[in-house]
Sequence to fold (338 residues):
Amino acid sequence: MSILVTGGAGYIGSHTVVELIEKGYDPIIVDNLSNSKIEVLDRIATITGVKPKFYKVDVCNKDEMRKIFESESISAVIHFAGYKAVGESVAKPLMYYNNNLNSTISVLELMLEYHVDNFVFSSSATVYGDPKVLPITEESEVGGVTNPYGRTKYMIEEILKDVAKVNSNLNIAILRYFNPIGAHPSGLIGEDPNDIPNNLMPYITQVAIGKRERLGVFGSDYNTVDGTGVRDYIHVVDLARGHLAALDKLDTKCGLTIYNLGTGMGTSVLQMVNAFQTANKLKVPFVITDRRPGDIDACYADCSKANKELKWQACYSVEEACKDSWNFQSKNPNGYDY
Ligand code: NAD
Ligand code: UFG
Fold:
């Protein structure tokens, strides 16, 4: 069964492609490599013994995408392709609206044209904005988003609901990811950010390897256990497996469904620094700095819906994820660039 994986060369996409191959699926990656490296394909081949089929195509380019839909026998689409940097989205909102919305619309139109019924969408816990109640369930209020990136996720969710209403053949899983960290245990694939990392874990690993002097801990006066921000960090392999569980669910012809994919456990920034230090027997120098604008106190998921309906549950601990993040960073000090 061919699964079209847009953005499949990226961080979460590449881990999902590995899981797909290992479960006997036949993934086809479409990626324009705007935020990933071609090298990842060889790494996937080393892990799985299979080099996935790859098209270097912009998903917004409907003519090029049509050729793929025409020539391949696609049973489902997992749509990872999109831009994801919050700060950049504030500076370049049109670039974000253009890429994230148009890539999704392009794929959906082609799915309708070629009668491909099953669609998995990478949404984000960011759609919940600053949650009023924790843990966050799928019923929690959405829409209070404070940046263009987050708004693209919210807007796409609304588009998907409208499209599903009038296309009863479509089965759509909206997966709201919490904070993915970690890497494949082989250390062959992992997160390889361009420039200065925006996210906590890649920043920690770059400090640990000596690329950055120290971690800035953004604020210590949040209403949390130790004053630093609390998030729900999920190992990327657990997250990848959530997509396979979603594909099984879509096969039951379930229409549109929404799932939180997290661990259900909150970890503060300082707890994460400690976990990383303990897991890897390393020191991570840090300094408390000002809050980062737009950050919230705490965010963690209630995953009981995914546990029950997808029969899926995150298995890796934060310590294991810290080990795997460091394993990738230490084996690949310059990411996929030698
Ligand atoms: P990533 O940047 O590593 O992967 C995205 C991939 O999409 C990249 O390989 C990039 O080259 C590709 N891409 C972007 N625009 C494209 C286009 N128009 N055509 C073809 N390819 C295109 O990001 P990721 O962390 O793997 O995230 C995957 C998805 O999950 C994204 O939609 C992201 O918004 C979402 N998400 C990520 C996080 C996170 O913290 N990583 C959290 C919540 C949601
Ligand atoms: N943090 C630091 N120092 C850093 C980086 C982060 O202290 O150098 C703190 C943040 O203040 C926050 C926590 O670490 O408390 C996590 O920050 P991340 O940037 O790793 O993650 P966010 O929860 O802020 O954002 C992530 C994704 C967004 C997504 C959001 C909700 O980056 O794309 O989760 O899903 F929208």
About this structure: The first strand starts at residue 2 and ends at 6. The mean pLDDT is 97.
